[in-house]
Amino acid sequence: MFSQAYRGARVLVTGHTGFKGSWLARWLLELGAEVAGFSLYVPTQPSHFEILGLEKRLRHVTGDVRDAAALARAFADWRPDFAFHLAAQPIVRDSYAQPKLTFDTNLGGTVNVLEAVRATPSLRAAVLVTSDKCYENLELQRGYAEDDRLGGADPYSASKACAEIAISSYARSLLLPEGRRVASTRAGNVIGGGDWAKDRIVPDCARAWSAGEGAIVRNPASTRPWQHVLEPLSGYLWLGACLAQGGAGLNGEPFNFGPPAGANHTVRELADALARHWPGKTWAAQPAADGRREAALLQLDCAKAAARLQWRAALDFDQTAEMTAAWYRAYYSGNRDMDGVTGGQIARYAAIAGEKGLAWAK
Question: 227: domain CATH number?
Answer without folding.
Answer: 3.40.50.720
